[in-house]
Design a protein that fits this description.
This protein is of the alpha+beta class. It contains 11 helices and 16 strands. The radius of gyration is 24 Å and the shape is globular. It comes from Marinomonas foliarum. Its cofactor is Mn(2+).
Length: 408
């Protein structure tokens, strides 16, 4: 019988070891196509080989391991997540979704389990987009969605993506070779920490993801009239900051009324003097929902309210769309298998949507996808305080084991 507790401790130990590979001595910071990326691929690739898997690295720098089926012509099923981090990040975001299935495969091999499909585990080189400011580079390579214009995208040191690939031992012109065939592809399953507080609040170790939220982002610029704080009467002011404050509260109210999430995370104010009325304020808007139509209805209402506030306060308003991504809904059949695997562990099944983006969003273009969330402490992520419990990992291993043996 599989000792999931012992396996879970091995997963934790491996996360600790991988979390030490960083380009910074002060924090965990591992970015795409760096020597630390190559080092991480080497470490995880070694664990894959210990598990009896065939390993390779594709043209985009993604690490692969295959547990081969007896039939060489069998279909393939993919599990995976990313091995890059944000600056000052945690050691479970992404990494858990690669290390856990690799560790499980070794135990399944030892138990004499065979699957009727090739099980591939992929460690994506870039999900966070930290180095080149464009997310999901690793997973997008699998779907053939690397536009030629990306060759000239540069990092903060002025190094182009094309040059970085060359330095890594690859070639931008070879990226199309990383795209995978879809005719025998059964699906994709990604394990990830929740990055939110829902499962912890419900006292549940795992949950099934129904969808990954679609997001839209905007930058707003509010133009008023700067003036002396002591000499301009209140009723004659065109205060850009006060107008923006009312707009931000309107965003919050509309989001609450429509059951979606909307965030103003960045504000820039000018001239930003203690005794000067604000003449110009800029702020961001990030709006998300698992249902695109629901998000867009709320967005239309927000835009109308912001225009009305601007008109009433006699300030100018300009907006620029900076990002748009549609929601991705997880495959119903794969969700069902996951729910059944959780029920077998005598754990209540909870379904939730992901407000954060994941590699599964890109992979959904080529095959059915599913995600399993695991509880993380206080919902903290993208932070050194990111934490998980070993017993939750043990439950997750049991759920994944049951899922893989009941996919066919």
């Amino acid at each position: 019988m599989t000792d999931y507790g012992k396996l879970a401790q091995l997963v934790m130990d491996r996360c600790d070891e991988l979390g030490k590979i960083s380009q910074s001595d002060d924090c965990l910071d591992r970015r795409y196509l760096t020597k630390e990326h190559k080092q991480a691929n080497g470490l995880v690739g070694g664990w894959m080989q210990e598990a009896g898997m065939q390993t390779w690295q594709d043209e985009a720098g993604n690490l692969w391991g295959r547990w081969q089926a007896d039939d060489p012509d069998a279909p393939r099923f993919i599990m995976g997540s990313h091995l890059d981090t944000v600056p000052n990040g945690g050691q479970y975001d992404g990494m858990l979704g690669v290390i856990t299935p690799v560790t499980l495969i070794a135990a399944m091999q030892a138990a004499g389990v065979r699957l009727p499909f090739h099980l591939d585990v992929v460690g994506f080189g870039d999900e966070e987009g930290t180095r080149f400011s464009s997310t999901l580079l690793g997973s997008r390579a699998l779907t053939g969605q690397w536009p030629a214009s990306w060759a000239d995208v540069k990092d903060s040191d002025g190094i182009s993506l094309s040059q970085a690939l060359k330095d890594f031992g690859s070639d931008f012109a070879s990226i199309p070779n990383a795209a995978i065939a879809t005719d025998n592809l059964l699906g994709y399953l990604e394990l990830h920490i929740e990055q939110g507080p829902v499962l912890e609040d419900l006292d549940l170790p795992v949950g099934v993801v129904s969808a990954i939220a679609g997001a839209k982002r905007f930058e707003f610029n509010i133009t008023g009239m700067a003036g002396h704080a002591g000499t301009v009467p209140m009723n004659l002011r065109q205060d850009a900051l006060c107008a923006s404050s009312e707009m931000i509260l309107a965003v919050e109210r509309v989001a609450q009324n429509h059951g979606i999430v909307a965030t103003v995370g960045r504000i820039q104010n000018r001239p930003n003097g203690v005794n000067v009325i604000s003449g110009n304020t800029g702020f961001s808007l990030d709006i998300r929902s698992e249902f695109d139509d629901k998000r867009d209805v709320a967005l239309d209402e927000i835009l109308l309210k912001l225009d009305a506030i601007a008109a009433r306060r006699n300030v100018g308003i300009e907006r620029k769309a900076t990002h748009a991504a549609n929601a991705v809904h997880c495959d119903a059949k794969l969700q069902s298998v996951l729910r059944n695997a959780i029920e077998v562990q005598n754990i209540p099944v909870h379904t939730l949507f992901s407000g954060a983006g994941h590699d599964a969003m890109a992979i959904a273009d080529i095959c059915p996808v599913a995600m399993l969330f695991m509880r993380c402490e206080k919902g903290i992520s993208h932070h050194p305080a990111e934490a998980i419990d070993t017993p939750d990992v043990a439950v997750t291993l049991a759920v994944l084991n049951h899922t893989l043996q009941n996919l066919a």
